[in-house]
Design goal:
By secondary structure, the protein is an alpha+beta fold. The protein has helices spanning 2-19, 45-55, 113-135; strands spanning 23-27, 38-43, 61-69, 73-85, 88-99, 103-111, 152-155, 158-161. α1 packs antiparallel against α3.
């Protein structure tokens, strides 16, 4: 049981680490940006300070969706705040114009098919491993009588009483 718990934790950790690598960013020129595309822009220090004061953006990287782009500037829709009301929350966005001369780098987000394939393969291998482990248990282990269930079921950090 302890080995199974370690295996599950290792699989979850591996999936989380690999899942972070499913996307990649590739260099992009401002006029080539397409409407709706997710991009990140590295700003000049002056523009970063200006955006921090006006839009509350921290740091010099800004990530958003392209609204429009031409040779002179790119218009991005960026997350600005989250509003909660009545148990519902909604993310508010604002549009920001970034002149080309205030961008030091512009990158487009795209799916990295190779890394995504690795993630899918790792998850499938972990699932197969767990199934094989479950079916390869000791055949001499005591079999529980379904008419006489145990007093409680043990799950790490949680107890569920089955009888009163």
């Amino acid at each position: 049981m302890r080995n199974q718990t370690k295996a599950v934790r290792a699989a979850v950790l591996a999936a989380a680490l690999l899942g972070a690598g499913c996307y990649k960013y590739e260099p992009l020129k401002v006029p080539e940006a397409e409407s709706g595309q997710t991009v990140r822009a590295f700003l000049t220090p002056d523009r970063a300070v200006e955006l921090q004061e006006t839009a509350g953006i921290q740091g010099r990287w800004v990530t958003g969706r392209v609204v429009s782009a031409d040779d002179r500037e790119i218009m991005l829709e960026i997350p600005s705040a989250t509003v909660s009301a009545g148990g519902m929350s909604r993310r508010l966005r604002q549009r920001v114009a970034l002149p080309s001369d205030q961008l030091l780098d512009l990158q487009a987000r795209s799916v990295d098919t190779w890394k995504t394939g690795l993630v899918a393969g790792a998850v499938a291998a972990a699932a197969v491993g767990l199934v094989v482990y479950q079916f390869s248990q000791d055949e001499n282990a005591p079999v529980r009588d379904p008419k006489n269930p145990p007093d409680q079921m043990r799950i790490p950090l949680l107890r569920i009483p089955l009888r009163h």
